[in-house]
Design brief:
The chain has about 280 residues and is of the alpha+beta class. The protein is about 30% helix and about 30% strand. The chain has two domains: about 150 residues, 2-Layer Sandwich (Fructose-1,6-Bisphosphatase, Chain A, domain 1), CATH 3.30.540.10; about 120 residues, D-Maltodextrin-Binding Protein, domain 2. The protein has seven helices and 16 strands. The strands form four sheets. The protein has a seven-stranded mixed beta sheet, with helices on both faces. Strands 11-10-12-16-14 form a five-stranded mixed beta sheet, sandwiched between helices. Helix 1 packs antiparallel against helix 2 and helix 5 runs parallel beside helix 6. The longest helix is centred in the first third of the chain and has 21 residues. It is globular and about 50 Å long. The N and C termini lie far apart (about 50 Å).
């Protein structure tokens, strides 16, 4: 077994354990108990016991076995030491916390491993649906062990697109309805995995995101013949000093040029979490 294969096996094991921890608090179709929601880290950005416990489990598991790897997680203070490491874990212990709190099965554990700024292994696990998405550089993407690939849609008109719940509620997606078939969905990590699996043709956000939101999903998509970039067409680079990006566009690959052109004159959205 190669080092990367060993890393991926470790990631999958850790994701399953973190998912089990999260499911101890999850209540399908029902609001999670009030005591689980600890606080809001910023506007519309909740923190729960499940986030913290899953993060602690992942950090202990991954760094115990790979102590020379760097660490970047949503639930830990950033440390510039990671910038000096060749390989770095980029983790979101639970992407889609708002959906988790509402009892919606649209959240996921997201673990990406980057080497020299590029993802080389990835794991996205939705414990509510028991879907384990994984990928290794050059080895394709898989769902529960079976190979997946992106859709064959070639026309932007009528393409299926996953949209943000909160952005949809604010009316930010109304302008896209004449062209796209929209489905609101939580967790950008899970959205990217679903596009990689060919269930939807694309997803995008013009609202700022962090590396931990989409690192794992980026590799899943690429290894499934999809494409991901920023709104200006620039490639996604990880383990940057500032992990926040202004936009993320993901497609089955065949639609990417058309999507970039379609959104060329659409303005970026403000960082609402940064607003007091």
């Amino acid at each position: 077994m190669s080092t990367l294969q060993s890393d991926l096996a470790l990631m999958e094991e850790a994701a399953l354990l973190a998912g089990s921890c999260i499911m101890d608090y999850y209540r399908p179709g029902t609001q999670v108990a009030a005591h689980v929601h600890i606080k809001d880290k910023s506007r519309n950005n909740p923190l729960t016991k499940a986030d913290l416990e899953a993060n602690q489990l992942l950090r202990q598991r991954l760094l115990t076995h790979r102590p020379d790897y760097g660490w970047l997680s949503e639930e830990n203070l950033d440390n510039s030491e990671r910038l000096q490491r060749q390989r770095v874990w980029i983790v979101d212990p639970m992407d889609g916390t708002k959906e988790f709190l509402k009892g919606l099965p649209q959240f996921a554990v997201s673990i990406g491993l980057i080497e020299n700024h590029h993802p080389v292994a990835a794991c996205v696990y939705n414990p509510a649906t028991r879907e384990l998405f994984s990928a290794i550089h050059g080895g394709g993407s898989r769902l529960n062990g079976h190979r997946i690939q992106t859709s064959q849609q070639t026309e932007l008109q009528g393409a299926s697109c996953l949209a943000s719940h909160s952005e949809t509620k604010r009316g930010e997606w109304e302008q896209f309805r004449p062209q796209l078939i929209l489905t609101p969905m939580g967790s950008i990590a899970y959205k990217l995995a679903l596009v990689a699996a060919g269930r939807f043709d694309m997803t995008f956000t013009l609202t700022p995101k962090n590396e931990w939101d989409y690192c794992a999903g980026a590799l899943l998509l690429r290894e499934a013949n999809g494409q991901i970039s920023h709104k200006d067409g620039q490639h996604c680079i990880f383990n940057q000093k500032n992990p926040k990006v202004l936009s993320v566009l993901a497609s089955n690959g065949k639609l990417h040029a058309a999507l970039l052109d379609y959104l060329q004159h659409t303005p970026l959205s403000p960082d609402r979490q940064a607003v007091a």
